Amino acid sequence: MKKYNGFIAMYLVNVLLIWGANMLFPANFVLGSANNSTWGAILVVALLWDVLVWFTQPLLRKFKVELKKPMSIAAAYLVANFLVLWVLARLGPVFGFGVSSFVWVFALALVANLVQYAVWTVLAKLKLATM
């Protein structure tokens, strides 16, 4: 079960980040569509975001990209968060998640990067997940 703590924690963080972005900036982060309710969009997009970002490290290993410094790891995850959110926003009619501009996608990715790092640090200190 310890293996999944990080995944579950990041999923919950992503749910809160998407919900919070919509609550704070409703003109820039739109949730729901003709096919998806607001909460349906939040839950599906957060799950897809979590799953796709979860593959960042295995992909980097596969392509033999060595990230040893914390800043390079943070940069890799910032790029991953940005790309995943941008793709999910571009598929807005399918998933019910829309963003008004790539600048807002970058802002959410940056905030997500900081919050995800903080949660991982706490989980690692509590020995509930490995970094």
List keywords for this structure.
6 helices, two-stranded antiparallel sheet, 131 residues, mainly alpha, 2 strands
Characterise the protein shown here.
The protein has 131 residues and is mainly α. It has helices at 2-24, 38-54, 56-62, 70-90, 92-95, 102-125; strands at 29-31, 97-99. The longest helix has 24 residues, at 102-125.
Rounded to the nearest angstrom, the distance between the terminal CA atoms is: 15 Å
Per the principal axes of the C-alpha atoms, what is the gross shape?
Answer: globular
Mean pLDDT: 90
The helix content is: over 70%
Main structural class: mainly alpha
Name the poorly predicted regions.
none
Strand count, sense and barrel status of the largest sheet are: 2 strands, antiparallel
Q: Walk across the major sheet and give the strand order.
A: 1-2
Tell how many strands the DSSP assignment holds: 2
Rounded Rg: 15 Å
Q: What portion of residues belong to β-strands?
A: under 5%
What is the topological layout?
Elements: H1 2-24, E1 29-31, H2 38-54, H3 56-62, H4 70-90, H5 92-95, E2 97-99, H6 102-125
Antiparallel strand pairs: 1-2
Gist of the model:
By secondary structure, this protein is mainly α.
